[in-house]
Amino acid sequence: MIEKRKTQRTRVLKSAVISFHELGTTIDCTVRDLSMTGACLRAASPAGIPNEFNLVVDRDRVLRRCRVAWRGVDRIGVKFEAA
Known about the structure:
This protein is mainly beta. The chain has a single domain (10-80), classed as Beta Barrel (Thrombin, subunit H), CATH 2.40.10. The chain has strands at 10-20, 25-34, 38-42, 52-57, 62-71, 75-80. It has a six-stranded antiparallel beta barrel. The radius of gyration is 12 Å and the shape is globular. The N and C termini lie far apart (31 Å).
């Protein structure tokens, strides 16, 4: 597989919340890998997660605006958007 990422990701295991307040909804997830430009998130089911949302990493209390780059069975890859 050809690596398409612009920056290398570091494996992590952090709890987080996917938040899309437009619908008043949150979904628990786990950050599996992370870089300055994006992340891989594991959720019970990516179905119903919109293409853009806020990600809140629990431990760090960091809020990042995200855009979905790809979807899998239980994972999604996201790109961080500019603030």
